Amino acid sequence: MSIFNFFSNHSDFASGIEQANNTSNAVLLDVRTVQEYANGHVPGSVNMPLDRLESIKLNKNNPVFVYCRSGSRSRQACRYLRTYGYSVTDIGGIADYRGKLEKGV
Predict the structure, then answer these.
(1) Which residues belong to any copy of the Rhodanese domain (predicted)?
(2) What is residue 92's predicted lDDT score, i.e. its pLDDT?
(3) Average model confidence (pLDDT) across the chain
(4) 29 closest CA partner among 15, 41, 12, 40
């Protein structure tokens, strides 16, 4: 467990993935860099780096589950997306995730 997860009040990352997978029309959003995403991401996730979030074009009716490496960028992304009317859940950081990962873009 990373120090970021220790101080987090978010549920376990794997539980967040499961919740996203079980939510109708959910979008699993990875806000890490393109390179981080290519090195390993949760299958089915969409990459939109935090510094490009202003160009996001998602249906605001679809719930968005956001993650990054440690949870810091996902928190920032969630604050930003809520401001623009998105329904978001911060599932934290992938750093300690031991589930299936996909490589490439």
Answers:
(1) 22-103
(2) 95
(3) 91
(4) 41
Question: Which helix (H) or strand (E) element contains residue 88?
Answer: strand 88-93
11 Cβ contact partners less than 8 Å away, ≥ 6 residues apart: 19, 91
Half-sphere exposure for 99 (CA within 13 Å, toward CB): 13
The pTM (predicted TM-score) of the whole model is 0.87
CB atoms within 10 A of CB 94: 24
Residue 78 has pLDDT above 70, yes or no: yes
Q: Using alpha carbons only, what angle is made at residue 93 by residues 88 and 97, rounded to the nearest 5 degrees?
A: 120
Give the closest residue to 11 by CA, choosing from 91, 96, 99, 100: 91
76 Cβ contact partners less than 8 Å away, ≥ 6 residues apart: 31, 50
